[in-house]
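User: AEC family transporter. Structure?
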Amino acid sequence: MVFLSILGPMFMMVVISVIGYMIAKNNEITEESKQLLISIMLNIAIPCLILDGAFKTKVGKELISQLILIFIFSIIISLLGLLLGWIFARIFNYSPSNARKIAFIAGLGNTGFIGIPLCAEIFGPKGALLAAAFDTGLGIILFTVAIALLQENYQFSLASLKQIMNPPIISIVIALFIIITEIKPPEIIQQLNGMLANLATPLGMLYIGILIRMMLKQKGPMSISRLTVPILLKLIIFPIITILLVGFTNLSIIIKQVIIIQTAMPTMAIAPILLARYAQDEEIGVKATVFSTICAILTVPFIVFLGSKFF
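Assistant: Predicted structure:
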């Protein structure tokens, strides 16, 4: 049962996050060291985790069709998440400027740092590959529609498209090539890739723990009143809507489960960076990422439980 199988990985992730918190509490964590951790995750660990799924998953037309389906659903769900985030923000009288930030926080989740490793822990290498396909669709929406949404005077440029071609997305293209051609590297390369892939979960959760500590050290009000709506929408309302949507489709059970888990992910870890750059509001990004991640410890198992009861 997926609900029971998610409890173990979630518990381990919590423990690793606490370790990250303690490391940050007892050591000085600079912005450079934090960026190094992000770089290792995005450029090495996550790409290797995706490739590991291609190496260890049985090849077939069914897998290719599943990857395409989950990619399409990811784009649809990501767009719907941004739209619902903006609508709810306006209903609750947020200003147009803040409504765009709320839509960003509530619409897009941490499908890479947490989602891919979590699906790998629950479903194995195939789960990582399917989760990566979802993350790819979200990444395309992130660096096109979402970035445009954050800016009042947005102008299209090739620079936005270049950001889409990051290591995780390149790795899923390579993974598709491996699946289609059935060409795999020597065993020693696969073993090396597997070792690097195993870094994804611990590094990602260490980063979350460090982020929590850094936020708690910041001076100033810790109120999350302006985040109540987006966090409820991100972790509860939108995942339940997604359960209802995919529940009436003919998608396979594993695709439905991966979609639900990815939709239930907390606000993405790079939200503070993007909100600081495009909306000049890093604070709301940091608080949304940290508070939603803490809440997700309870809400993700709850959403998975609801999903298992629905289908």
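DSSP finds 14 helices and no strands in the chain. The chain has a mean pLDDT of 85.
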